[in-house]
Design a protein that fits this description.
The chain is built from ten helices and 16 strands. It is an alpha/beta fold. It folds into two domains: 265 residues, Zn peptidases (Aminopeptidase), CATH 3.40.630; 114 residues, Alpha-Beta Plaits (2-Layer Sandwich), CATH 3.30.70. The N and C termini lie close together (12 Å). It binds zinc ion (2 copies). One zinc ion binds next to loops.
Length: 387
C-alpha cells in the first residue's frame, strides 16, 4: 500500500495530459480525438493489448500482473464533455466553442492514464487489470452500451470500480458508502386531455389547465404524506405547456418531470402512484390522462466487498480520517450503475476542493487531485489483486 508521495512524480505529466484534454473537449460518442490520445498514451506505456471502437469510441486495455493467474478487475474512466460555454478563464480553457469538460471527465481520464503508466511499469499484482475508457456518460448510455457489447464476458472481468470527482470535498479526501450511492433517474409525461373552448365560457369546456394544476399540487403530497421521511425520493414537475393564447382554454396540457430514488421500492412506488394520482384527479374533474414513464438510469449500488476494498485502498493512500466511509448518497445519477449491475464493485468520490460545481461554466478539475486518483487506482489494484 502506497502513500500519495509515491505518485507525486507523475503529477506534471498527468497535468499536461489533463490540460490537453481540457482544451480539446468532445461530446457523447464523438470522442474520437480523446480516444486516439488515450490509445497512443497506453501504447507508449508498453501496453500491447488495447481494443478500441467498443461502443463506437470506447477502449479496453489489459495489463497483466507479474504475480501469475488471478481475476480480472475493471477500472473505468469516462471521456466525454458537455455542451457548455466555458467561463473558467484558465489558460487551458476549452478551445472548442460551446463544449467544455465541466464534469471533470478530463481529470478522470488523466488519472486512469496515470495509473496505467504506473501499473504497466510495476506489474506488482496477480491477474489482470482491464482499463475501461468510456464515451457518452453524460447522456447515460455509454456504460450500458459497453456492457451490451460484451466487455464483461469478453475480458473476463469479475469486479468493476469507478470514481468521480466531487467539488466541495477537500482535495485528498474520499467519500463512499455501501449500498446505494447515487439515485435512479426516471422521467414522466402526463398529458391531460380535456375539452377546449372559449375562455369566457368555461362551463362549456373541461379545462385541462385547472386539472393539470391540481395534479402538480397533489404530486407534492405523494412524498410528504406517503413515504417514510427517512427514505429519499424526489419528484419534480419541470415541464408545463398549455395554450399560447389568453382567451383559449386548450384541449390538452402537457406536464413532465423527473423522479430520483434511492431504492427500487421507492422507484416502483413513484411510477405507480404518480399515475394513480393523476388519473384519479383527472377522472374526478371529467378529464383523462395519457401517462408515460421512462426508467433512464438504474441505482448505482455499491457492493460490500468492493466497498471495503475501495476504503482500504483510499485509507492506505491518505490515512484513516480522510476517507468518509458513510457518505450520504447523492440524488444525481451515474451511468456506471450499468456496470455495477453487470458485475460487483464500487464507485467512490474524490475531493476536488472548493471549485465551482459540476456542469457549471466556471468549473475546472483541480490538477492537485491527480496523484490522489492515480494512487487510489494503484492501491486498489494491489489490494483487490494482492500477491
Ligand atoms: Zn456530468
Ligand atoms: Zn461526470
Amino acid at each position: 500500500m502506497h502513500s500519495v508521495q509515491t505518485f507525486r512524480h507523475l503529477h506534471d505529466e498527468a497535468t499536461a495530459w489533463r490540460r490537453y484534454l481540457h482544451q480539446n473537449p468532445e461530446l457523447d460518442y464523438r470522442v474520437h480525438n480523446t480516444a486516439a490520445f488515450v490509445t497512443e498514451k497506453l501504447a507508449s506505456f508498453g501496453i500491447n493489448h488495447i481494443e478500441t471502437g467498443i461502443a463506437e469510441t470506447g477502449i479496453v486495455a489489459l495489463i497483466q500482473g507479474e504475480g501469475g493467474d488471478g481475476p480480472t478487475i475493471g477500472l473505468r474512466a469516462d471521456m466525454d464533455a458537455l455542451p457548455i460555454v466555458e467561463s473558467s478563464n484558465k489558460s487551458w480553457s476549452s478551445k472548442i466553442p460551446g463544449k467544455m469538460h465541466a464534469c471533470g471527465h478530463d481529470g478522470h481520464t488523466a488519472m486512469l492514464l496515470g495509473a496505467a503508466r504506473y501499473l504497466a511499469n510495476t506489474h506488482n499484482f496477480k491477474g489482470t487489470v482491464a482499463l475501461i475508457f468510456q464515451p457518452a456518460e453524460e447522456d447515460g448510455q455509454g456504460a450500458q452500451r459497453m456492457v451490451q457489447e460484451g466487455i464483461m464476458d469478453r475480458f473476463g472481468i469479475s469486479q468493476v470500480f469507478g470514481m468521480h470527482n466531487m467539488p466541495g470535498m477537500d482535495v485528498g479526501k474520499f467519500g463512499i458508502c455501501d449500498g446505494s450511492i447515487m439515485a435512479a433517474l426516471d422521467e414522466f409525461d402526463i398529458i391531460v386531455k380535456g375539452k377546449g373552448g372559449h375562455a369566457a365560457a368555461p362551463h362549456l369546456t373541461i379545462d385541462p389547465v385547472v386539472v393539470g394544476a391540481q395534479i402538480i399540487v397533489a404530486l407534492q403530497t405523494l412524498i410528504s404524506r406517503n413515504t417514510n421521511p427517512i427514505d429519499a425520493l424526489v419528484i419534480s414537475v419541470t415541464r408545463l405547456s398549455a395554450s399560447e393564447a389568453y382567451n383559449i382554454i386548450p384541449e390538452q396540457v402537457e406536464l413532465g418531470g423527473t423522479v430520483r430514488s434511492l431504492s427500487s421500492a421507492l422507484r416502483d412506488f413513484a411510477e405507480r402512484q404518480i399515475k394513480a394520482c393523476a388519473e384519479g384527479i383527472a377522472r374526478g374533474l371529467g378529464a383523462e390522462i395519457e401517462f408515460r414513464y421512462r426508467r433512464l438510469e438504474p441505482l448505482t449500488i455499491n457492493h460490500t466487498e468492493g466497498t471495503n476494498q475501495a476504503i482500504k485502498a483510499a485509507r492506505g493512500l491518505v490515512g484513516h480520517c480522510a476517507v468518509d466511509e458513510k457518505i450520504k448518497p447523492l440524488m444525481g445519477s451515474e451511468d456506471f450503475a450499468y456496470m455495477l449491475q453487470a458485475r460487483p464493485g464500487a464507485f467512490i468520490f474524490i475531493g476536488n476542493g472548493p471549485t465551482a460545481g459540476l456542469h457549471n461554466p466556471a468549473y475546472d478539475f483541480d490538477d492537485e487531485v491527480l496523484p490522489y486518483g492515480i494512487g487510489y487506482w494503484v492501491n486498489l489494484v494491489e489490494t483487490a489483486l494482492a500477491l
